Amino acid sequence: MSVSFTRTGPGPVSPDATQHMVRMRDGVRLATDVYQPSSARPGPAILTRLPYDKSGEYTFMPRIAAYFTARGYRFVVQDVRGKFRSEGETLLFVNEAYDGYDTLDWVAAQDWSDGTVGMWGDSYYGFTQWAAASTGHRALRAMVPRVTGTRLGELPVPEAGRRTHDVEMSVHRYYPLSMFHDRDILDWEIDWSRRPLAAQVEEFFTAVGSRSASYDLWFPYPVSLRRFPAGSPFDAPAVPVLMTIGWWDNCAPWQWSDHREIAARPAWARTEYLLLEAIDHENNSHFTPGVPNTDPSFLPRYLDPAVEFFDVFLRGEDRELPRVRWQLAGSGDASFRTGSQWPPAGAYPREWRLAGGEAAVGDAPGGTLGPAGSPEVISWTHDAADPVPSPVRDAFAYLAERPDERDLAARPDVLVFTSEVVTAPLDLVGPVRLDAVAGSDGPEMDLFARLLDVAPDGSARLIARGQQTIIDPGTAFAVTIDMGHLGYRLAAGHALRLTVASSDAPEFVPAPGTGEHRWLAGKTVPNRQWLHLGSTSLTVTVMEG
Prior knowledge:
By secondary structure, this protein is an alpha/beta fold. Helix content is 19%, strand content 30%.
């Protein structure tokens, strides 16, 4: 079967940029654009290293450069090795540490630089900041990694001695087939209902006429290539870091993992600042949905916190920054609350128990979330041939859709539990988790938990979620599902709803039911799943609104 795809190469270089080919230690040259402010005197620079085309519309780097240079910064943006105008092999993650070090060397040595550099950027170009930080380069004085993580895109695989791991996202293996296949971006669609999935990949390689080294190193099981050959970033000298995390970012679990790592390292903990925003991975805002990045309001919202941070740590301005700034979604107030810690002082954990098992299988409102649970064991069937559909087309841009999920509650493979409506606003501010005991007659089991805000009109919209794969679950296996963190006001008259299921496709690759590799399985087998209500509870961190 033929595969159709589109290829997107580099966009036109901005006339405002000076182009350079910066030589790395092994002789490979990386395409680098420099944007200068009006001042001719040497000063601090901001570096961004990204794989999505420094000249393309998607990254709109010329507009970002103009914003920083108007505030007196030199802005340097580079295509990473093997992408667009840069030379070298196209390979995920493994070259970013030393390429970052060598680029910092080059920036610091330029006559327009005063030797101090900050790094800024989202997602993969947040990861390149951590990679550079791992080398301990003295020129790196501040970094602003947004919606990212040191484990960004890490393929979940079983670990010795552990029977749980994250569920595999479809993008895990698709990303090296599209963004990191070769220098360009290759767009194509996988038919998630046609198995084996890996056969479609081979058809794609035939159509393109080449293979993806990144995919081949990960398939069927990943070769362990070191992301940080100089050592963990958290073992390197601490750098002031502004961690920007989105409440609806599908990559947020990796950044919260970094936050926990930082908290355990005193030097890093002293230099960490948190900016917790009501955004998704693509920077859509809960408060202003649908506003494009070309809108005049976008760049100030997107870049002003970074400018302020760099003013303090690159220019040495005498200003005290709050250690934590956070937005309270659902409140109607987009301003940032401030504090010295997260969760904020006065927040405490509140537990909800599950009851009403028979009602939970069917339709909303289902069973109950409340102070008392029930000892029932309820069951449902997971069928990978008819999985629970993902509610959005693009999980990275969740807030562009933010759908009403009430209809999913009617499926027989979705368990539903709804609380009483609250009579006064309840602020959900901190970590959320589900402690469950689950089981299956299959060799593995995926457990998905979603927390929703149910409005008086019956609409139900996602506010938190988490998921885990359980290996050899048996009839009863205890598992904790980390559902991330919340900054959300549950309004008076609203209720909380918890849904539990075993699939969320195609955002996540469904378990075939046979125990085979999910991309090699040629058939699917339905599995019977169980949830022990008496041993399951939802814990949310709250403050009275």
